[in-house]
Automatic annotation (TrEMBL):
Organism for this UniProt entry: Pedococcus dokdonensis
Keywords: Signal
Pfam families membership: Peripla_BP_4 (PF13407)
Any GO CC annotation of this UniProt entry: cell envelope
Protein name, as recorded: Fructose transport system substrate-binding protein
Record-linked InterPro entries: Peripla_BP_I, SBP_2_dom
Domain of life assignment: Bacteria
Every Periplasmic binding protein domain range: 48-325
Length: 367
């Protein structure tokens, strides 16, 4: 993960947690499996599969790049695979089957949906240590452990910031989610977290779209809200544009747009611009392109996550377990290992901790 000289309390805590985690992973000692070959340093070479949702989203490209760069440091034989696109469960299932057949010691995976759970179970039953990255599976016990952003908190930061920016004005909201035909934890946690940050009651916290469509939000100074739409953009720029067009057709007065990620946000902005409209846009990812969109004003605020850290810590963990080290532990009070989040915005909001786009650009990922 890139380094920074930021000195905010949140950043210091994030660094402290990361260093503590790395130390814990390095010092453990129990056993699970071996490996077949030995590297130059005397450590057994460990086979690991890194399976992402796709190989085009900048987030997963950065994760794959970081994994490849760190593989040699850990004497890891890394195989990178992915689905063809978001939603390609079968592509991930095939990659899991291939990892089992190769005799890998572990798998790092950003699970597509509950559709890959059975394949993950098969891998664990075969003795592989499976770590989810970025997307906690449902249920979390599907994998050995998850290294991820606290996506609920990421969404809440966006919602708290948006409520403060509205300053009591009515909120006419478009929610641009990931899917409408699959249940993915990252999808509902960001969406529902955003609503909670706005101070809007959610019905089932694991389900998008079942909250009251009108009512009062209590974040910031509070005010009236209308939820115009929940549309799926599948995490892509073109999907974000078409989803936003559908929402604007329902209500052209949308003034607040939540997006699952930054490519979706860019697409939504294009649709707004084409319609001659403006709105506050919030998102999650914190890639370098997304941070640039914050600086240019396309995105008002984005919750930054750290995919290189996820891949690095995950690879270190599997390599150490295969060589007799301890299993990693979840963060206190959570059912996953929290790799940190920071809100990036150039419009500070009272009571919402954030960093500027200049600060975010020093620790962003991707090009």
């Amino acid at each position: 993960m890139p380094h920074s000289t930021l000195q905010t309390p949140t950043f210091r805590r994030t660094v402290a947690v990361t260093l503590a985690a790395a130390t814990a992973l390095a010092l453990g000692a129990c056993n699970r499996g071996g490996a077949d070959t030995t590297g130059g340093g005397g450590e057994a070479t460990v086979g690991i599969a890194l399976i992402t949702k796709d190989s085009s989203n900048p987030f997963f490209v950065a994760m794959q790049k970081g994994g490849r760069a760190d593989a040699a440091k850990n004497n890891v034989k890394l195989t990178v695979a992915s689905g063809k696109k978001e939603g390609d469960d079968q592509g991930q299932i095939d990659a899991i089957e291939q990892s089992i057949a190769r005799g890998d010691k572990g798998i790092l995976i950003t699970p597509m949906s509950t559709g890959v759970n059975a394949a993950i179970k098969k891998a664990r039953d075969a003795g592989l240590f499976v770590i989810a990255l970025d997307t906690p599976p449902d249920p979390p016990s599907t994998v050995d452990i998850t290294f991820a952003t606290n996506n609920r908190n990421a969404g809440k930061l966006d919602g708290q910031w948006a409520a403060a920016q509205l300053d009591g004005k009515p909120a006419v909201i478009a929610l641009l989610d990931l899917f409408d035909d699959k249940i993915v934890s990252v999808d509902y946690n960001r969406d529902q977290g955003f609503l909670e940050g706005m101070g809007i009651d959610v019905a089932d916290g694991k389900k998008n779209g079942d909250e009251a469509k009108t009512g009062k939000y209590t974040g910031g100074k509070g005010g009236d809200y209308t939820i115009v739409c929940n549309e799926a953009g599948e995490g892509a720029e073109d999907g974000g544009r078409s989803a936003m067009e559908k929402c604007l057709a329902k209500n052209p007065n949308i003034n607040l747009v939540y997006t699952i990620n930054e490519p979706t946000a860019v697409g939504a902005n294009a649709a707004l611009k084409a319609a001659g409209k403006t709105a506050l846009i919030v998102s999650v990812d914190g890639g370098c392109a997304g941070v640039s969109s914050v600086k240019s004003g396309v995105i008002g605020a984005t919750a930054q996550q750290y995919p290189l850290k996820m891949a690095t810590l995950g690879m270190e963990a599997i390599a150490k377990i295969a060589r007799g080290g301890e299993k990693p532990q979840v963060s206190p009070g959570l059912d996953f290992f929290d790799t940190g989040v920071a809100l990036v915005t150039d419009k500070k909001a009272d009571g919402v901790e954030s960093i500027t786009s200049d600060e975010g650009s020093k620790i962003c990922w991707g090009n």
